[in-house]
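User: Some background: our group keeps a shared notebook of sequences we're curious about, and every so often someone picks one and asks for a predicted structure to add to the entry. Today it's my turn. The entry only has the sequence so far, pasted here. Could you supply the structure so I can complete it?
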Amino acid sequence: MPQCLLSSDPTPSSRHMRVLVVEDSYLAARSLARMLQDLGAEVVGPAPSVQAAMSLIESKGCDAAVLDINLGSETVEPIARRLDDEGRPYFFISGYASPKTMLADPRFASRRLLSKPVEPVLLNRAVAEEFGLMPGDATNPDRG
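Assistant: Of course. Here's the predicted structure to add to the notebook entry:
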């Protein structure tokens, strides 16, 4: 089973951080994707379901992820477990008051959570601290 990978181009200056967006609301997903692209990330997805996200991980790969906790009739827990197992950074977003109560696995309790609608300054900070990608930094040569 392939892991999330940097883009296949081996030239360090052209390796963009690939960030998987898992969000079931089209408008929220578009907004997140646009903000991440403004930070220099290459957006993978968005994926509106666990199955779609897993397919994207398999087919396109990723370096990190932004995960909406509630995807309608399911949560992102299987995706978060996989990213944890592969050592990939991620954080959660949610529009609910107590979203972490939806997650059964206690290891997710300490993960960063941003409230929706996500404010750009908070997303910038989370991406910088969790993924090591600074605003306008199109490449991340330390990963690989």
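Suggested note for the entry: Confidence is low (pLDDT under 50) at residues 1-15, 138-144. The longest helix spans residues 26-38.
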